[in-house]
Each structure stands twice: as structure tokens, then as C-alpha cells.
Amino acid sequence: MAKRDFYEVLGVARGASADEIKKAYRKKAKELHPDRNKDDADAEARFKEVNEAYDVLKDAEKKAAYDRFGHAAFEGGMGGGGPRGGYAGQGDFASAFSDVFEDLFGDFMGGRGGPGGPRSRASRGSDLRYNLRISLEEAFKGVQKTITVPGSSACTACNGTGAEGGAEPVTCPTCSGMGKVRAQNGFFTVERACPTCGGVGQVVKNPCRSCQGTGRIEKDRQLAVNIPAGVETGTRIRLAGEGEAGLRGGPTGDLYIFIEVREHAIFQRDGQTLFCRVPVSMASAALGGEVEVPTIDGGKSRVKIPSGSQSGRQMRLRGKGMPALRGTGVGDMVIELAVETPVNLTARQKELLQEFERIEADNSPESSSFFKKVKSFWDGMKG
């Protein structure tokens, strides 16, 4: 019986890409697998036919020969009798199916291996996070902080190799440095991490007694950290190479410092702008005057209060706010007046206020406007 066209077997067009061929093979292999078609006597033959087609079309050189000469490319020596000239044939399709199985489950089983094995023999250390709280004054000026970072450092006894005396690890004899082993299970080739080296591809003959072969030891470190002026809550500072030490001499991770600026007793912050709520007496608000307010740099500023000022009135002091982080310019400080009603009045004070109330003219514009609106509202309700 003549062989069917390999493109027809997989159900793809002749110009199909490698991804389209692989996708079609996955679908066919799953559909025709003998374990799923135990009652179909022809399932195994069709499954082998699909694997035979895929073994040729997945290879660029074999595919080019097949496109030019068809099945004759692999008969009578035209395609060569070596590993790249022949194809899987009847019953020898484990390799083709293994490629797709590895592609589908490679990440779970440890990934495809390169020249040095599926995993890096020396793994990178983890990144660390440190939460640092500072005051608003420190955020304004910038500050240097000494912090204690718990974590691991490269073992000095073995120079991070994990082997006694700093000797280099040797290739794992079980997996020959690949970090994984294969086991045939029917039509499947299953890969798993090498039980001897744990998937690293190397083993340490004489583990370092200080670090038990890991190449790193638990050790707290003190670091001096420069906090730039202008930072705010949520600012992240990265210190490259100050994280956890790598395994068996691998590169060190990074340290990320997350800034939190504590609330201030006087100032509230919004970006580069500072807000300061300043209480003033009723007399100062009515007559006008001056008030002395603090600034974040530790200085003082005198602010004029216009006569007739009401609570909530704002005045802006240019350049008295927070500096820009890694930039130029300084924000402003906004003063908000809070007019205070006097309490614990003496008899004389009460007498003066009562007299003021009797002779009060139309000098409470907001009050007059409000009650005019109220009267208009009531009149409208009556109408």
C-alpha cells in the first residue's frame, strides 16, 4: 500500500509553518493515541503514521528533501542512511513524541537543557525587601541610614562553591550534567529532575562544613543607605547585589528598600506641596495682623493676615515645600487659617461682646447672605 502524503496525514497545507505542523501533530497524537482507542485495531498504525510524518516535517532538512522528492527522498540512499537522512519508520516514534511531550511539559519538569544542562549550575540569590520608615524632615533633607539586613552571604570558607577548600563541583555521574533523567513508559518518555544532583547537573564530593555544601551562610549585614531628598511613601530604592547570596557561587540578588514617611505633627504633604493649618484669634482675623509659622527646614516665616479673614482662607508661601526627587525645584507651603471662637470668657469680655452684638452693623456678609436665602426658601414654601 502506497504511503500517504505526510502533509495529508497531519492535515496541514504544504506551506504550513513549523508551529502549525507541531500544533497539528499534537492534536492528531492526542486523538489517535492507542491508550484512548483500545477498541480500534487500526489506531496504533495510524498513530505511528502520524509520528512518522511529524518526524520528517519537524526537521528543516528532512522537510526540504521531502518537499522536493517526496517519499523517495528517504529510499534507495537519496536521503542518506545516517541519523539525519532516515525517519522514525514503523514503530520507532518515541523520539518524535518525546519532543512534543518535552515542549508541553518541559517547564514543569525542569525545562529544555542547553549545553550546560537544563538549569544553571549556580542559581541566583533571591531579591530582598526592606521597609524603612523616616521622618518628614529626613525626607526633606535626605539622610543616610544604617540598616541591618537579615539574609545570607557567600560562604568565605569555600568561596561560595559549596565544596571543602573551594574546590569546583564535578559533573553529576547520574545525569552527565543534564540535571534530568528520562524514563520510557509505553509511548511516553517522562523526564524528571535528577535524584542525585537535584536538577543542578553538578555534585559536590566533599561538602563544605561551614555551609553544608550550599555555598552560603545565614548572616545579618549592616548597610549604609543614602536616602535622597524628596522621597515619599512608596518610593522604592534598588541596591544591586545586596540581596541574598546565590547558591553555589551564583550571582547575588538585589535589595529593594521601600520608603514610608511618617505623619507629621504640623505639616501634611501632597507631593511637593506642604499644608499647615494655623489657628488665629477672632480679633486677628477681623482686624488683620501677622502670624509666625514654622517651615519644614526648621525656620520661621511671618504671614500677614488680611482683615476680615474667614476660616479656611489659604495663603501660599513659594518655595517652602518639598524638593523634587532627583530633579530641580521646590514645592510651596499652603497656610490655611482656622479662626478660633474664644472660650472661658471673663465678665468684661462677655460685656464687650454683648455690646458689639448690639451695635453690629452689616459686617457679617456670609451670615446675612445665608439668612436671606433661608427667608426666601421659607417664603417659597408658604407660597
TrEMBL record:
Name this polypeptide is given: Chaperone protein DnaJ
Family per similarity comment: Belongs to the DnaJ family.
SMART domains associated with the record: DnaJ
An example Gene Ontology molecular-function term: unfolded protein binding
Pfam family, one: DnaJ_CXXCXGXG
Gene Ontology, cellular component aspect: cytoplasm
Repeat positions for CXXCXGXG motif: 155-162, 172-179, 194-201, 208-215
UniProt zinc finger (CR-type) residues: 142-220
Cofactor binding notes: Binds 2 Zn(2+) ions per monomer.
Domain of life of the organism encoding this protein: Bacteria
Subcellular localization: Cytoplasm
SUPFAM superfamilies the UniProt entry points to: Chaperone J-domain (SSF46565), DnaJ/Hsp40 cysteine-rich domain (SSF57938), HSP40/DnaJ peptide-binding domain (SSF49493)
Positions with a binding annotation for Zn(2+) 2: 172, 175, 194, 197
Domain annotation CR-type: ranges: 142-220
Domain J: 5-70
UniProt remark on domains: The J domain is necessary and sufficient to stimulate DnaK ATPase activity. Zinc center 1 plays an important role in the autonomous, DnaK-independent chaperone activity of DnaJ. Zinc center 2 is essential for interaction with DnaK and for DnaJ activity.
Subunit annotation: Homodimer.
UniProt: Zn(2+) 1 binding residues: 155, 158, 208, 211
InterPro entries: DnaJ (IPR012724), DnaJ_C (IPR002939), DnaJ_domain (IPR001623), DnaJ_domain_CS (IPR018253), HSP40/DnaJ_pept-bd (IPR008971), HSP_DnaJ_Cys-rich_dom (IPR001305), HSP_DnaJ_Cys-rich_dom_sf (IPR036410), J_dom_sf (IPR036869)
Main location per the UniProt record: cytoplasm
Purpose of the protein: Participates actively in the response to hyperosmotic and heat shock by preventing the aggregation of stress-denatured proteins and by disaggregating proteins, also in an autonomous, DnaK-independent fashion. Unfolded proteins bind initially to DnaJ; upon interaction with the DnaJ-bound protein, DnaK hydrolyzes its bound ATP, resulting in the formation of a stable complex. GrpE releases ADP from DnaK; ATP binding to DnaK triggers the release of the substrate protein, thus completing the reaction cycle.
Organism, as annotated: Phaeovulum vinaykumarii
